[in-house]
Amino acid sequence: MSLNTRTRSSSRSSNSLTVETAVEDLLRRREARSSLLQFTEYTTPNWKAAKVHRLIAEQFDRVLHGEIDRLMLLVCPQHGKSTIASRRAPAMVLGINPLTDVISASATSPLAEEFGRDVRNCIAGSEYRALFPDTQLAEDSQARGRWNTKQGGGYYAVGIGGALMGRGGNLGIIDDPFATWEDAQSGTTRAKVWEWYTGTFYNRMRPGSPIVVIQHRMHEDDLAGRLLGRQTTGGDQWEVVELPAHLDDPPWPERYDRAALERIRDNSDPRKWSALYMQNPTPEEGTYFQRAWFKWYDPANVPDGHRYTTADYAVSEGTGDFSEVGTHVYAPGGDLYLAVDAWRGQTAPDAWIDRTIDQFARHKPLCFFGETGVIKRSTEAFLTRRMHERRTFCRLEWITRTRDKPAMARPLQAMASMGKVYLPDNEYGHFLLAQMLGFPGSSKDDAVDMVGLMALAVDQAHPGVSGQPIEQKSKPDRYDRLFDDNQEPSWRM
Q: In whole angstroms, how large is the CA radius of gyration of the chain?
């Protein structure tokens, strides 16, 4: 009797576990039908999502749900962007609507076809059939790069420059438009990519169809650069997911932690690191600022001098601008050490006001310089009130702003050309150099505006800039001056 009781109890426990497992699987399938991240995990055994993948998938979900129709993913090499965007997103799209026509383009046809093979194999898998049983491959069309569903949709892989005659798309994906760094440095190759995008690919996308561009930056005038540049002249407006390899906040720390990224940086050409990993391509040589003008200093060994803080605040919402705050040292001899402390971000005003006062507390600057006009009107009262709340104070001065940004940066240009400007040998310093080399043609110049205020204050001999502690020779006494051949006698002796 006791044995039978235990047997029935064990049976009920087993049935309970079976029900729980079934419920859990049902919930997982439900989530996988509506979330690209969950779909990727469900259909890719042993795949683990990191921060970078969650951010990519969240934005791609907005494409799938019709919230945006232009998405640009700018992500470091080998960070798993293609797994989500090129290998799993098309499969999920076809599961939701098997009538969809997907056009997938890459720098080479073999790479595009490889993505197509993975999408096809995903659709043929048992995990996929558990989610989307109605989407099936047509038996007479299963080539790895060009195949159809039984319902009439399909997938078409093409290399950049390839023909798309007779093809139309409901979803267009371009994953890595350049095969090599050298290709991206070629003006001829860049022009061919642009001509193909505008003359072939774009014209094959049906009205309202989304386009996704996936790449790491390779040149300021690469495909992403041109598309972003056209936004200001009536071109498509892009939702940009930019995931640079910040050492303090790596996008995929489980695989590329700080030590791994530092090793890559230390063994990379600075231009390649800035473009491929920081998503901030720079010209080999600038037009307004020259690379050779700048010197580097060790951030752990900053020279003595008077300290000042400057800021360029992004007070207009929706512009994509960054707020930049930096503290600088004006050293004996007139050398300017920029960004001994720096912060940048796209945040609400309360955040960048507090980051400014944080620098006041750390460095006790003699003066803070900002721009007059809308920036002063928007921030002065807020900044003053917050200083009183935190009991941390600094003199505030406001420099007149002009619409001519190159004119405002002219004093910085002059000081740099004389070898008077030093940059920190750290992530922010190299970012700052990259932005200056692209100035004034680059779409991003917030950091240049911020450091330019410091040189402008020095150039104008602003009252907020104290006289520098330049070393003086000891004053000769009366006896020395009497017998100095270079001194003319004076009755004051």
A: 30
